[in-house]
Every structure is written in structure tokens, then in C-alpha cells.
Design goal:
- By secondary structure, the protein is an alpha+beta fold.
- Helices cover 46% and strands 19% of the residues.
- It has helices at residues 11-24, 41-44, 53-68, 70-82, 84-98, 111-148, 158-166, 174-177, 180-187, 211-238, 240-245, 252-263, 295-312, 338-347, 366-379, 420-426, 428-441, 448-451, 468-472; strands at residues 191-194, 197-201, 206-210, 268-278, 281-290, 319-325, 332-337, 354-358, 389-398, 403-412, 454-462, 481-488, 502-505, 510-513.
- The strands form 3 sheets. It has a 6-stranded mixed β-sheet.
- Helix 3 crosses helix 4, helix 4 crosses helix 6 and helix 6 packs across helix 10.
- It is globular, with a radius of gyration of 26 Å.
- The chain starts with 10 loop residues before the first helix and ends in an 8-residue tail after the last strand.
């Protein structure tokens, strides 16, 4: 099969994706293909990367061991096939929720704003996660377990699916993940707000949670369904060619996610996709947003997309139609004859593979500008992966003549650092500097916070990454906190030291080591 033309926009990212996946999922090295790049989101993107590893491991082991067991394989394949639509829709809906801007920032501290945000951004999504996503992900397994135990499989709703799984020891943790009272209260409009508390009522029970507690439950549920989804994606993508040879259906949402990961670059984003039939021919429709300036680079990106589509879904479509949203007023589109593209890929038959194009008038230096941006992208480090230090949250303010960093949370890459204690001791100046640099990224150039020196810094150091709001809500009692750096060069701020762990004096600051980790290595 033909290899896509070299595209400087995504060449480096593809190479980095491959390295990240191979280092985290060694079994992909045995694959005879590279159609697993979308798994990288579970190591780079939020909230995917916060997936529950325990859940993912359990479901992966279940799927892998069952498919290898000759007496159970047929029942599992039939169970997934019977509930295939529910599984596909669950994965698609989870992708949509993961892409929403609701996973990092904290809820407003203003009561009315907080209630508004919860009502409009979280309640319905929580219900969707339960009724559409969680149910769609566990329904094939619940169906399988009931079939194996000679039980009925009619009317498998979310409650019955959970009840089926929790009867087995390996899946009993789901009883804590799924809360029937909260689900029913949201579904039937029985959620009451009392200040910063929420009351969930159904016919049998009432539960009261603070808004922060509800958000924590929301995050935990997202992490669990992402863990299950990660297990399914690995299961399908690693066995992609084997399953296709045996005519085992692959969820379309998994393939589309893989297409997006491979075809997209910083200037080319697939926003939406759907299938239609035009003149009795099957057509894939993509809606793409781009900030490219030239027709040549746009043609290249569209051609790459068509090639990747054929790689992932051979012989699936007769036509690919790409509607392109540009930064110019004129609408653009491009259409590919996939039969002619296949003839070129498989037999080298050269022909005009585009059924038609409609592009804007290219600016004089548009192509040169895209060339410069492509080379800049090639040599830039745009993936925030494998860094020794990653700043995650900061809270600061300014006094009359200096800045105060009240709280700066950062994460150390424990896999890239040997002795953690020695690293912190020897790099306190660097870690304090990281706090001021991160503060500067949050300010404008002529602001007071940018120009004044910083005389008070408190740095909280972690080895495990979390959501930004988790860092904001964290305290000194957090088990994931391993050390605190405390620097006070101000004469006016009272030197109140944290009552935390073991104190150690350093040239640049005081270090407080966590008691939770008596041996930090």
C-alpha cells in the first residue's frame, strides 16, 4: 500500500507518538502495522491520561484472556457483536466529552456561578457518562457473563449491567463507581442546591454532597470509563488485522479517532465526520478546520487524509468529501474518487483522483509562509511528554514592591530522575526559578507581576500528575505530595512554616519532606 507523501506538519509528531506508545505498550512492537497512534492520547491528553490504571488493567486482562480461551472466544465475540452499536456509540460519546473544556479548571468560588456551571456543564454530562458511556462499555461483558451463566439477557439497562458485573470479584469495584441514587436524581430532575451543597433524591434514598465532592465523583467516573475505553482500544487496535481477516467488526469511532490522530496537525483539524450515500455510492464526509495559507499545503493535507482513510478502512468508501473551514471568507471543499485512489495505491495506476476542488485565491506569500511554519513545527518540541519538570498550577499576587507566589504545584518525572531527594536538594534554585517562569507565562509583559521581583515562593512537589483543579484543591495532607520548598526573602511577610514532614535547610530555601514517603527514590 502506498505511503503518504512526506508532510512536515506531522512527521515529527508521528515519530514521537510511535516512541511514546512503544515505551508504554511494548506489545505494539509485535504489530505488523502502525494503526495505533490514537493510543497516545492516553499518555498526552487530559483527561484521557488520568485514566484509572487499575480498571484498565482489569478489563484488558479480561478481554485478552477470554479471546485466547477457545471455549469462551465465540461467546465473547457474539456478545460484543450483539451490543456493537452500544459500544461504538459509547466510545464516540466519550471522545466528545473528553474534548470538552470541563476537565481541568476548578468550579467558580462564587455560589451562583458555581450552581450555574454545575447545572449547565456537568449534570447532563454525568448522566450521559452513566447511561450512554458506562453502559455501552460494560454491556457486552454483562451480556457475556449472563450468557455464560445461562441467565436472561433482556432489558439490560445500566443498573442491571452494573449488578451483573459486581457479582464477579474482579469487577466488584464498579459498585463504588456507579451511584444509582445520583443517576436517578439527575435523570428525574430531583437535584436541589443548598448553598454550596447538592442534594440528590430518588424514591428510596437521599444523598448530600458538596459541589467539590460531586466534581470529584465526576472526575473519578470519567477516569474509570477512560480506563475501560483504553482497554477496548488496545484490544481492537493491536489485533486490528487479525480481526479484519476474521470479519470481526471494529468500532467505527476507534478508526475515526485513529484517522484524526494521524491526519491532523497544528493547522489541520477534523471537527466532524458522517457517512452518506450519493448516487448509490458510499461517501465519507469530513468537516475540517484549517489555518493554512496555501492551496498546495491544503492539497497535501487533504491527500494525506484520504490515504490514511484508505489505510484504516480499505474499500469502505467510493468518495471522500472534505468541507474545509478556512480563515478566509470563501468556503472550500475537496472531493476524492476513492476507487481511483485505490487503483493508484495498489496498482500504481495514475489518474486524476480528485472529483473536484473549490479553493480560495492564494495570497502572494502564502506558500512560503506555510513552508516556514512547517519547518518551525518540525524542529519545535510541541509535546509536553518526558519533561523532567512540569508546572501544573500556580496562585500568586503582588504587593507594593514584590510578588508573592502562594502556591506553585509541579510534577517531577520519576522515570527520568534517579534519586528524587538528591535531585530536589541539588536543584532547589532551578525549581524556584521554574515557579517564577511559570508565573510569567500567566501575566502580560507590562503588568506589575511581570516586572517586580519575587520574594516569597512556596512550591509543592509531586511525582504523580493530576488535573489542575486537583492541584488547586490539594492540601499539605495530600498523600501524593512528596516535598515543599519554602522561600521567604520578604521582611514583611510573617514566616509561617508548614507543619509538614521533616524540615531541612538548603542554601536557597527550606525543604519539607513528606512523612508519607519515608524512602523517596
Amino acid at each position: 500500500m502506498a505511503v503518504p507523501l512526506r508532510n512536515l506538519f506531522n512527521e515529527k509528531s508521528h515519530s514521537e507518538y510511535s516512541k511514546i506508545i512503544l515505551s508504554n505498550i511494548p506489545e505494539t512492537s509485535l504489530c505488523k502495522h502502525e494503526n495505533f497512534f490514537s493510543l497516545v492520547h492516553y499518555h498526552l491528553s487530559s483527561p484521557n491520561k488520568f485514566y484509572d490504571k487499575f480498571t484498565s488493567s482489569l478489563f484488558s486482562n479480561f478481554l485478552d484472556s477470554t479471546i485466547k480461551h477457545s471455549s469462551n472466544r465465540k461467546t465473547l465475540i457474539e456478545s460484543i457483536a450483539f451490543n456493537f452499536y452500544d459500544l461504538d456509540q459509547a466510545l464516540k460519546a466519550l471522545d466528545e466529552i473528553n474534548n470538552k473544556d470541563i476537565h481541568e479548571k476548578n468550579i467558580s468560588h462564587q455560589e451562583v456561578e458555581a450552581i450555574y456551571e454545575i447545572s449547565n456543564l456537568y449534570l447532563y454530562e454525568y448522566l450521559k457518562i452513566n447511561d450512554l458511556i458506562l453502559m455501552g462499555l460494560i454491556k457486552p461483558i454483562a451480556y457475556y457473563l449472563r450468557k455464560k451463566n445461562n441467565k436472561g439477557v433482556e432489558k439490560l439497562d445500566i443498573f442491571n449491567c452494573v449488578e451483573t458485573l459486581v457479582t464477579t470479584k474482579e469487577f466488584d469495584f464498579l459498585s463504588n463507581a456507579y451511584n444509582h441514587t445520583i443517576r436517578n436524581a439527575i435523570a428525574h430532575g430531583s437535584v436541589l442546591f443548598n448553598g454550596k451543597s447538592m442534594i440528590f433524591r430518588d424514591k428510596k434514598k437521599e444523598i448530600s454532597l458538596t459541589i467539590k465532592e460531586f466534581i470529584k465523583k465526576f472526575d473519578e467516573l470519567i477516569d474509570i470509563v477512560n480506563g475501560i475505553a483504553y482497554a477496548y482500544r488496545k484490544f481492537y487496535l493491536i489485533n486490528l488485522f487479525v480481526f479484519e481477516e476474521k470479519n470481526i467488526l471494529i468500532p467505527n469511532s476507534i478508526k475515526i479517532n485513529e484517522l484524526k490522530t494521524k491526519a491532523e496537525h497544528y493547522a489541520w483539524k477534523i471537527l466532524y465526520n458522517y457517512d452518506t450515500t450519493v448516487n448509490h455510492k458510499k461517501q465519507c464526509n469530513l468537516y475540517v478546520s484549517t489555518i493554512l495559507n496555501s492551496r498546495d499545503f491544503m492539497n497535501l493535507s487533504a491527500y494525506q487524509t484520504a490515504i490514511y482513510l484508505e489505510h484504516l478502512m480499505p474499500n469502505a468508501y467510493d468518495t471522500l468529501f472534505i468541507q474545509i473551514k478556512t480563515k478566509f471568507k470563501m468556503p472550500c471543499w475537496q472531493s476524492f474518487d476513492m476507487n481511483k485512489l485505490r487503483a493508484y495505491i495498489n496498482d500504481g495506476v495514475q489518474d486524476i483522483i480528485t472529483d473536484g476542488t473549490y479553493f480560495f485565491d492564494q495570497k502572494k506569500f502564502g506558500k512560503k509562509l506555510d513552508h516556514l511554519k512547517s519547518y518551525k513545527n518540525l524542529f519545535s518540541n510541541h509535546l509536553n511528554y518526558g519533561k523532567l519538570i512540569e508546572s501544573r498550577y500556580i496562585k500568586f499576587h503582588s504587593k507594593s514592591f514584590y510578588n508573592v507566589i502562594e502556591k506553585h504545584c509541579l510534577v517531577l518525572n520519576k522515570n527520568a530522575i534517579g534519586d528524587i531527594k538528591s535531585f530536589i536538594r541539588n536543584n532547589t534554585k532551578l525549581l524556584l526559578k521554574e515557579a517564577t517562569n511559570f508565573k510569567n507565562t500567566k501575566t502580560i509583559f507590562f503588568s506589575k507581576e511581570k516586572q517586580l521581583s519575587t520574594k516569597y515562593i512556596r512550591v509543592l512537589i509531586y511525582l504523580e500528575n493530576m488535573r489542575e483543579r486537583s492541584f488547586e484543591n490539594s492540601s499539605f495532607s495530600d498523600e501524593k505530595l512528596i516535598a515543599i520548598l519554602h522561600m521567604n526573602k520578604s521582611k514583611k511577610i510573617q514566616n509561617v512554616l508548614p507543619s509538614f514532614g521533616e524540615k531541612e535547610e538548603n542554601r536557597y530555601c527550606s525543604i519539607f519532606w513528606s512523612k508519607n514517603l519515608p524512602t523517596i527514590k
